[in-house]
Amino acid sequence: MNPEYRLDLCWPELFQLGIIVLLFIQALAKGERPKNVNWVPYFAAGGIVVSVLSLGFTGTIFYGAYSVDKLSQFFKLAVAVGFAITSLNAVKPPDIEGDKRPDYMLFLAFSAFGLMVLASAVELITIYVALEIASYSVYALIPLRANDRHAAEGGIKYIMFGAVATAVALFGYAYVLAGAHSSYIADLQGLTLTFQAQPWVVVGLSLFLVGFLFKLALFPFHFWCPDVYEGTANETAAFAATLPKLGAAVVLVRFAALIVPGWPIATFLAVLGAVSMTFGNLAALAQRDVKRLLGYSSIAHAGYIMMGLVSGTAEGLAAASFYALVYVLMNLACFWVICRISHTGKNITLDDLDGLAQREPALAVVLAVGAFALVGLPPTAGFMGKLFLLQSLWDNGYNWLVIVAVLNTAIAIYYYLGLVRHAYTHEKDVPRNAVRASVSAQVWGTVLAILLLVLGAAPAPVFDLAMQAGVALLP
Fold first, then answer.
1. What is the number of other CB atoms lying within 10 angstroms of the CB of residue 378?
2. H/E element holding 66?
3. CB-based contact 318:470 (threshold 8 Å)
4. Stretch (H or E) spanning 60
5. Does residue 441 contact residue 313 with C-beta atoms inside 8 Å?
6. Is 29 exposed, middle or buried (0-12, 13-18, 19+ CB in 10 A)?
7. Cis bond upstream, residue 220 (ω within 30)
8. Angle between helices 70-89 and 11-28 (to 10 degrees)
């Protein structure tokens, strides 16, 4: 076998591609009856097993453009976990007709496949193509919501901002190629990325990273985020709010390994992180729509992730990777509750959470754990994730950013615990014929909550994987 085409290193991607092929065949099948996609979460769970078995794979293929390493395998596992949960959440979306559900699931699976490819891409054009594979499916899904003009508005904003971001990224690629005469990240490793030494490369990389800062919803590339979360269907929002963040995080971690703390580009990213977490938390205070609140929350959490990226240490890169995974789980726990409460697919406001502990005690616990984790309270995974980020940044030239992050965590307590307050302290009459969440929905939600608690109590196995990836990236 040609060593440049060793597909045996790509089992997670190949397994995901197999799911896509099966969904494509099912979507083409004729018939008016609703098509059952209940099998997808089980196959997605198989993808988790394949990703775990592939953690030790290493190698560089496709002439250096595709790297199978500890970082890529960590993020492929994170994408597999996220896809399994989101596919389970989206088996029966109320806004999608039964015969269109294979098409809907196909787009989700294809986007997850693009994110897996993105995890291993180490050449700029390969990164760009993988980003587009992951993005176009989401572009198609965002507007799909029956009789809701906000869905069309969210779709237009997401597509237009995404198109501008990718155009800017391509423009930056031209600058990098002109300055470094290479588009491989490995060739940029030894360069001094300052305006004095490499002005074209610094400008080019800054522009190229705009596409990923857009996906991460970092200020000032955040404008689309709250409107898209609010406008799109709940199940689609659960995917769009979580998995694309993993793709952005893995690329940013790779590029962060090139940056030395104190360089202008590192300081610029630190300032953006501080502004992003402050703006996101302050804007979230005024929100009543829960999905819009989580939209502004994601802007704040993008700022937290930047803390690990600018630290310049293996611990910082590991902390950013770990927190990206934890962020996905925290948000999926909250979106799980939103989707289970909203039986008709409508948006949930804070008032709709009133009395949740009375009518759905299991879901109230899941929401509480998710909210506590988003705040960063012990013993949740969110607490450990923020602790790792703060430790990685302290005494590395950005102590001021640590202080800003701690103050923002205090601000966030108000609106996150507001979710719990409405669920537990506000009473509401429940009609006798009210639709209840199924037993399986309560069980899987409880599993999510337990996972957040276990990662908070024993984060070492997962963080050690992220740490090995961070050490391998730095020279």
1. 12
2. strand 66-68
3. yes
4. strand 59-61
5. no
6. exposed
7. yes
8. 30
Span 367-393, average pLDDT: 88
Tell whether the model's pLDDT for residue 34 goes beyond 60: no
pLDDT at 396: 73
Q: Which pTM value belongs to this model?
A: 0.90
Cα–Cα distance for residue pair 10/54, rounded to 1 Å: 8
| The two three-digit tokens of residue 283, written as one number | 């804007």
Cβ-contact 231, 151 below 8 angstroms: yes
The string of DSSP letters for 403-469 reads HHHHHHHHHHHHHHHHHHHHHHH------TTPPPPPHHHHHHHHHHHHHHHHHHH--HHHHHHHHHH
Ranges 6-20, 119-133, 194-208, 302-316: which has the least confidence: 194-208
Mean pLDDT (whole number) for 150-167: 79
Q: Name beta bridge partners: 67.
A: 60
* Average predicted confidence (pLDDT) for the chain: 83
**Looking up tokens 């969904």, which residue turns up?**
23
Predicted confidence band of residue 429 (pLDDT cuts 50, 70, 90): low
Greatest Cα-to-Cα distance within the chain, rounded to the nearest angstrom = 71
Q: What is the DSSP string of 275-313?
A: HHHHHHHHHHTT--BHHHHHHHHHHHHHHHHHHHHTS-S
Among 372, 371, 373, smallest CA distance to 382 is for 373
Question: Is residue 395 pLDDT above 80, yes or no?
Answer: no
Residues 247 and 452: their CA atoms lie apart, in Å, by 21
| Structural tokens at position 364 | 């109230």
pLDDT number for residue 176: 85
- In the chain, pLDDT over 70 holds for what percent of residues? 94
User: Is 292 within 8 Å of 229 (Cβ atoms)?
Assistant: yes
Beta-ladder partners of 184: 123
pLDDT confidence band for 148 (50 / 70 / 90): low
The number of residues in the chain equals: 475
The answer to whether 231 and 211 are in contact (CB under 8 A) is no
Higher confidence at residue 199 or residue 332?
332
Which tokens in the block code for residue 61? 């293929």
